[in-house]
Amino acid sequence: MDKKEILKEFSSDSDRYYKVKLFEEQGFVRKACSKCGRFFWTLDSGRDMCPEDADDTYSFIGDPPTTKRFDYTEAWKQVEEFFVKNGHTSVSRYPVVCRWRDDLYFTIASIVDFQRVMGSKVVFEFPANPLVVPQTCLRFKDLENVGVTGRHFSSFCMIGQHSIPDSNGYWKDECVDLDFRLLTEQFGIKKEEVVFVEDVWEGGGSFGSSLEYFVKGLELGNAVFTEFQGELGKHTVLDQKIIDMGAGLERFAWITMGTPTAYDCCFGPITNHLMQKIGIESDSDMLKKYFTSISKNLEIYDDLIDVRKHAVSSAGLTDDQVRKIITPLEGMYLIADHLRTLIFAIADGALPSNVGGGYNLRMMIRRIRGTVDRMNLKLDIDELVDMHIDYLKNTYPELDSKREDVKTILKIESQRYVESKSRMKKIAKKMSQKDRAPTVDELITLYESDGVTPEYLKEINAISEIPSSFYAKLSDLHQSDKKKTVEQLSIEGLPETEMLFYKDDPMSFDAKVLRVIDDLVVLDRTSFYARGGGQEPDYGTISGSKVIDVNKHGSVILHKLEGDIPKEGDTVSCKVDETRRSNITKNHTSTHILNASARKILGSWVWQHSAFKDDDHARLDITHHSSLTKKQKQEIEDAANDMIKQDLSVTIEYFDRGTAEQKYGFRIYQGGVVPVKSVRIVSIEDKDIEACGGTHVKKTGDIELIKITRTKRIQDGVIRIEFVSGNTAQAYVNEQESALVEMSEMKKSKEEINREREENKEETRRIIPLIVEDFLKKNSDANDKKIIWNDIHLEKTDSGKLCFVSSSAYDEFFHMNLGKQLIKKDSSLVYFGIFEDNNMSRIIVYAGENVSEEKNARSLVTEISKILGGAGGGNATFAQGGGKNRDKISEALSKAKSMVLE
Ligand SMILES: [Zn+2]
Ligand SMILES: [Zn+2]
Description:
Elements: H1 3-11, H2 14-17, H3 21-26, E1 29-32, E2 39-42, H4 72-85, E3 89-90, E4 115-118, E5 121-124, E6 131-138, E7 155-163, H5 172-186, E8 194-203, E9 206-215, E10 218-229, E11 236-248, H6 249-257, H7 270-278, H8 284-297, H9 304-314, H10 319-347, H11 358-375, H12 381-392, H13 403-432, H14 440-450, H15 454-459, H16 470-479, E12 498-499, E13 508-517, E14 520-523, E15 525-526, E16 540-542, E17 545-553, E18 556-562, E19 571-576, H17 578-602, E20 608-613, E21 618-623, H18 630-645, E22 650-656, H19 657-664, E23 678-684, E24 688-691, E25 706-715, E26 718-725, H20 726-737, H21 740-747, H22 750-781, E27 786-789, E28 792-797, E29 800-805, H23 812-825, E30 830-837, E31 840-847, H24 857-867, E32 872-874, E33 878-883, H25 889-901
Helix pairs in contact: 4-6, 7-10, 8-9, 10-11, 10-12, 10-13, 11-13, 12-13, 13-22, 17-18, 22-23, 24-25
The structure holds zinc ion (2 copies).
């Protein structure tokens, strides 16, 4: 539908569509802009241009139209106070990761919070009416504008004011009245400054009129009145009309502060902190001039580069000033903005990756890193995360408990970026040898397949500018990935099958045959669980014939039979294979247990990605940033078996979807979106609460045992946990314990062994820098003479410093990498690693430069290898050796201690 046509139609009858009570009461006049023709409503009879064309556009920079000043946090307090005072419920923000919609990764508007997709229809579920919500929204389309324009953010707070006109809610008159009073009474803006512009909104088959409200040329909010559906002219009124007023909190703060950019008043203490770091002497008047020009001209020029050029000349900036002030400022704003978005996204469970929504997050981390490198900044990202969260927790207290998780993920991702740099360098070099600049598509390919960001290319001067359409194109590519294809198969005229497995669940029952389609049988009622939610179907017999598959189409269940097929109208006796069902049920419940355990051991970013439950094996795919170490795998298994030992109750309750979401949060959507109004909530006491339609044991003790058989990284950000439970797990353990183990180990192909080793190596490479960093922090901070960090020990005396690792969980590759890096950072340190390898005890020793004369690595290895019954060799800083005496490890360790520490 053409928006212009709707606007024309509505504006031709403005009394009906736009004239609200407020306009009449206050004496607003309706005018057409002398420049663009748009209709607007104002109390200032002298105003003849719309807010965007008028001369006062952005004149609030340096001259705010309010007497009070509110930053981001305070601005929300004002908005909230006003709406609550006026009968609204203040609702906490919803997650920025949009778990309740199949077609969106991230929450892009406040109204999305309340939209639920049922089949092809969008329905609205409001937890209160009317309400107001400070919804953090993520949008990646304008990434190249962020930091540059003064008003674009990768995430912003949309003040959502929503109402359904019924006995509690209101419609246009009250909405516009409230918005006007919010600006004039609560924020103290002069009535004459508020201008409403006529507009329309359309999307998803519905449309309606809207009034955008501006102050000094800045659009603060847009009140949309969703009222109609269908084609214009043939349209009908919606059953449920809705007010969708969205306003930008950052802009509310900005208009009261009048700072050069909105960034200056929305990141709390970070902006000043960064300004000091960079050493910018910010000449305020000059910046005001510059950013006012940027703001005014953003819509006039097509290209941001031209807007910038124009602003530079109109503010009279020299090249030197641009280089020393503007460019660093832009970088600083970018860092603050991107970091804030990453905090919200990671805190809500999203992980950076190379697929789907994780893509944008990785891109932002790389943009931060690239900017930091280009500006040659020494920034402590952890400190910035703390500053952001300390500031944001006034409005969003839930972020407080996630700060360590956020830091962990950012650290891992930064490390990956550093690792990929040398590869990027090679690719970039090749590229700059070409005689033309790369196209946008080529840049996208470079990023998609090699992770080379345009920021990086700019940083090393391989390209001069980032094409402005790059981010929009990239964002488009990854926007629609999430859409699922729905299999269409309708069973005409059949009633819903009565699902006995959700009731008393008899293993034997009689039923009536309603329809036969080839070898598929539809019954009036069934206990056969149909394949769904990753759970495999039940088998058994129907009137003696084998049931070999069961599937659900809509709410009709089809049983696939082998052998004689009963006739329509027959009454048949049915038997479910109880053993199979019981095994599947245990495996299914185990996925809940393992999911909770993995989250507990690894971090809050763990979500179920997908799951598969058959009778003799099952798997759970979780979101996690790296391959699992042996230790993590063991800890998850232990935590899971702990839950079994505790014999926790598994309870099932039905809730209205909105109630369930409010009560338990969006964590319930582990298995994905639930397209029904009544949600089946499965709780393992307070340890795991999910919406789930599968079959579950009554007590966790019924599962007896869970064994993880294998874990592997199946895609970036997704780890597969393969496992067995119950009797199968017991059998697995017995098999492991028997001599067969070695046989099956031998059967492992060389390739498989190599691949496993490679996987571990990659993991080691990733975690060692993190260990080193954390370890050195502890090394320098503590007065302690003994420090233990995971399996790494440090002992200090006046005569020496020894770091040792004797856990069997680590191999040669680990020790060599860790030792080498530690002595590089601390040259008075000796590293001693001891481990078993091929029935041998092996040692690896590194001695730091400052001590290698006195505590020579080779002499240490020679001495200690004697104890182990072997020999060794090397030089003063690095040596290795070992021997056959595997029972002499502790003796070897004491020898090492005495040689280094005494
Ligand atoms: Zn105009
Ligand atoms: Zn379940």
